[in-house]
Amino acid sequence: MTELISRLEPDSRAASRGFSDLSIRNLFIIPTIAFLIIFNVFPLLYSLWTSFTDFRASTTAPANWIGLANYRELLSDPFIWRNFTITAKYVLISVTGQVVVGFGLAMLLNRKIPLKGLITTLLLLPMMLSMAVVGLFWKLLYDPSFGIINYFLGLGKFEWLADPDVALYAVALVDIWMWSPFVMLLSLAGLSAVPKHLYEAAEIDRAGPFYTFFRITLPLVAPILMIAIIFRTMEAFKTFDHAYILSSQPTTELIAIRLYKMAFLEWQTGLSSALAYIVLIMVVAITNIYVKYLNKAKAR
Amino acid sequence: MAEIKTKGEVALNRVAIVAVLVALMIMLMPIYWIASTAFKPRSLATTVPPTVVFEPTLTPFAKLFTKRSQLRQPVEEDVYEAAPWWEQLIYDDGEQVVKNRKTGAITSSGYWDRYKNSLIVSIISTFLAVSMGTLTAYGFSRFKVKGEQDWLFFILSTRMLPPVVVAIPMFLMYRTVGLYDTHLGLIILYTAFNLSFAVWIMKGFIDEIPKEYEEAALVDGYTRLQAFFKIVLPEALTGIAATAVFCFIIAWNEYAFALMMTSRNAQTAPPYIPSQVGSGLPDWSVIAAGAFLFLLPVAIFTFLLRNHLLRGMSFGAIRK
Q1: What pLDDT is recorded for position B131?
Q2: Which intervals hold domain ABC transmembrane type-1 (chain B) (predicted)?
Q3: Of A32, A108, A290, which is closest to B20 when you measure between CB atoms?
Q4: Which residues of B touch A291 (CB under 8 A)?
Q5: Sign of dihedral through CA atoms B35, B41, B46, B52?
Q6: Which residue, among B190, B194, B191, B204, has the nearest Cα to B137 in the 3D structure?
Q7: Is the bond preceding B163 in cis, omega lying within 30 degrees of 0?
Q8: Inter-chain Cβ pairs, chain A and chain B, closer than 8 A
């Protein structure tokens, strides 16, 4: 009889067994939220404060409140603007390259190819590797005297990483090599979702391959491709690892590298905190676009 | 794609197959070059034209794990003959191993310590991130949470910041509380870093487990916790395994935080391997050996994970 009652009243039964649903929910969620607040939100508030001071972590001198002076200094510094310009150029080159190569590979793989599964998996390998170690190895491949790139392309002693005009492209090429597979993977998912009957209908209408591609394939893959582009833009904007290892050219000094040097080599803690905040605002802007598309894609 | 019918389509498909194979070769070339250089003697690592056919040797690995004297001294014949095989590998190149004066044991290089640090930090932070992430994902998936979307966005947003931005205040905090250059410091950072990822991926997996399973268990007299551990967790096991491997790979490959938050004691392999290049003529075969051993676990995991890669890389936003 008690068994029957408890079945009819689930709440009282749960309460009688110790943990209520509410307390389980809190037990499961609150530690994570608390942990992330302590190790993400708190440091950011801390650096917001340092960004208004002239603090240098290399000295024991106390921090002086200097208001917006750091921000004013940064925003009027042409070198910082140059770092942002370089970063924008780098993002544009590498994301465009990844979309072209990645989408091209996906179009090729979206056919009857023998061993398709194995080939796709092998193509995914680059993006799973450590960007730092990959950067180190491309240094060997790019080497002017014994690198295999120059040898196979017959470029003689071409200086990929020392030439100020080429170095940024060389760094972006490594990014393209690593992350084209990511665009390929998302494009493949998008392509496989295109309903087959649309192609059959196009065939009956005797539509040419170009018409089929631009009127059927591309519009239907576009939303998922857009996610890949935003995701890669966000990541490329943050690039540090391989760019820092590959090249020390002024023309390849991305904003993350400038920030690292300012904070950990020059020890301008206050100033670099202010720069970090400027970068942060930019990242939040890109993130918002990303999440908007993410929700749109999920709603479909 | 459309079915292959006409002769033209067959030819087009052949062209596509050739193009895919060429692309595959180009994409895998750098990885092949790392792997092959790791088995070359020093003299063949940087030759012009590049050496493609060679007799593989383990010398680079022997040199990777041992400390060698800076001066290259020729080794006498009888010393060479009497040495055990692993020392012969090193003597082969004319370099002398550094030995402990008292015990005569070969002194090992810093690589193994860094590799061990990588293992410790990655495994522990993965365990923490996945266990906390799974619980939180379950909480969000099964219970009503006020402002659920906002909380989930907050969790995701912690991953969107460039590491360098967070590193400045973290460095100051860590220096104050004594977490700088400690394993615990890196473990905490990587756990925080991976936690958002684990929550998002696990939520995708748990959402797909029918709620009816637990409801049936509750009717059978299980408590919520019992239903979670005995019904939901086993169902989510593949998802947990995939998420764990992802978190492990991310922590394993991480470079920026490791560079800024450690100096010696807790340094992991990613900042260590590039620092070995230094100035002058680096021994690329030894660096390749270090890189090869470091990339090996990731390569194996990639093959195990291939079916989950899409969901993992896109934060579970897109289902395959």
Answers
A1: 96
A2: 115-305
A3: A108
A4: 153, 156
A5: negative
A6: B204
A7: no
A8: 271
